[in-house]
Amino acid sequence: MITAIVFVKADVARIPEVAEAIAALDGVSEVYSVTGQIDLIALVRVRNHDDVAAVIADRLNKVPGVNETETHIAFRSYSRHDLESAFSLGLD
Question: Which residues belong to any copy of the Transcription regulator AsnC/Lrp ligand binding domain (predicted)?
């Protein structure tokens, strides 16, 4: 599984619509509206690099209201949540 973190600069007047359109794309697992230099962060989870290109270059970048993107490919995941789930025995 390949995870890409995509920083999105969007038309400020259309952020909710842009976020919903991106979230509806196959391969996009989550979209966050954030503060700072960028407007949205999208998490893309796909099986191979060709799929990364298909989701981001072919579809996400063409969503009306997307002005600019910056993509980061994750090498490894370090998540306390994932570790706790892996070692959980299901006991409270």
Answer: 7-76
- Classify domain 2-87 by CATH number: 3.30.70.920
**Domain-by-domain residue ranges, the chain?**
2-87
pLDDT digits (tens, 9 = 90+) for 13-29: 999 999 999 999 999 99
DSSP per-residue codes, 5-71: EEEEEE-GGGHHHHHHHHHTSTTEEEEEE-SSS-SEEEEEEESSHHHHHIIIIIIGGGSTTEEEEEE
- For residue 10, what are its two tokens? 């969007």
Q: How far apart are CA 73 and CA 30, in angstroms?
A: 15
